[in-house]
Amino acid sequence: MRLRPLAALSIAAVSAVLLAGCAGSGGGTASGSPTAAAAADLCSAQVPSGAATDAVTVSGDAGVAPTLSFTAPLQIDKLQAKTIGKGTGTPVAAGDFISYAMTAYDAVTGQKMGDIGYKAGQLLPAQISASSPLGQVLGCGAPGERVVATFPASEQGAAQVYVVDLLSVVPSAAWGAAQTPAAGMPTVELGDKGAPKITLPGGNPPAATQIATLKKGDGATVQSGDQVLVQYTGIRWSNGQTFDSTWDKGGVPTSFSTTGVVPGFRKALEGQTVGSQVLVVMPPADGYGEGEINTKDLKGETLVFVVDIIGAQTAQTR
To answer: 16-25, 70-79, 98-107: which has the minimum mean pLDDT?
Structure first.
C-alpha cells in the first residue's frame, strides 16, 4: 500500500500515518487472539531497508526521544524500514495492541518535526497487523525494538524520516490490582480472557449513579476530553440482558472521547487510571433519559456497565 508522509502536520497528528488501517478505533476485524501464523505474517510484512535508511544515523537509547542525523535533502524513493535496536521477549503478533513512540524529521530540510509517545498519555495503544503501516515498519519486533523508517514524498507533502520505538504489548483487558467489592452493587465474574459476567443484586435500582473500582490500574489518570481505549459490557437493570459489549464483537477494544458519551459513562471514566476496571450503575438521568421501558431503545433504563480502561490519550496531543 502507498503511505503518505506527514509534511504540514503537527507532531501531535504524526501518528495518523502509522495508524491508518489499524483496528484500535473499534472498527477493525483483527482477532484479539494472535496466532503463530499471525506472527509469521507480521514478520514478513516489514518492508526492507535500503540506501535511505542506511544514510540515517540515530543517537540515543530506545524509549527515549532520539537524535537523527543525515545529509539533507535525503533522497527517498520508497518506504524503507531498518531495525537499529533489537527488542527482547516475545515478538508481537498481528492482533496485538502495542504502545509505541516516534520521532519525525523532514527529509528535505533535515529539521526535527517533533516526537510523541515518550510520555504517558500521549498516544493510544494501537492494534498492529500485516496490512497496517505500523506492521510494515515494525514487523514482528519485540518490546524495546527501535526502527528507522523513511517515507517518500507524495501529493500530501515532502518526504520524512521516522524513528519508531516499540515500547510494550498492552493487554486487551484491565490488568490492575483487584479491589474490595462494593457492598450492594452488582457482582462481576470474569471469563478466561477477561469478559465480564454481571449479576444484579435484586431489588430496585439506585436513584443516583454508583461507581466502584474493581481493579486499580497503574497508568495515567483519565482527564476530561481524553480519548480512551476501552472494553465494556452493558446490561439493562430491568431484565439483566446484555445490550452491547465489545467482548461480543471479537474482544477488540474501542475508542472514543470521554465527552462523547452519556454522563454516567463519562463519570465512570474521568479520574480513573489506565489499567483499571470500573463498575458503574447509572439511572436514566445519567444514561439515555426517561421514557417507557422497551426493548427497542434504552430510554427509561437503569444501565450497568463494566469498563476496562486500556489506554488514554490527552486532549492536548490530538
So the answer is: 16-25
Give the closest residue to 65 by CA, choosing from 125, 112, 9, 121.
112
Q: Are 261 and 282 in contact (CB under 8 A)?
A: no
Whether the model pTM is above 0.90: no
| CATH, range 11-170 | 3.10.50.40
- Domain locations along the chain: 11-170, 177-317
Residue 78 has pLDDT above 60, yes or no: yes
Using the structure block, give the residue that is written with the C-alpha cell 526502527.
Answer: 147
pLDDT bucket at 120, cuts 50 / 70 / 90: confident
CATH class of 177-317: alpha beta
The answer to whether the beta carbons of residues 308 and 231 sit under 8 Å apart is: yes
Q: Assess whether the region 11-170 and the region 177-317 belong to the same CATH fold.
A: yes
Cell 459489549, located at residue: 245
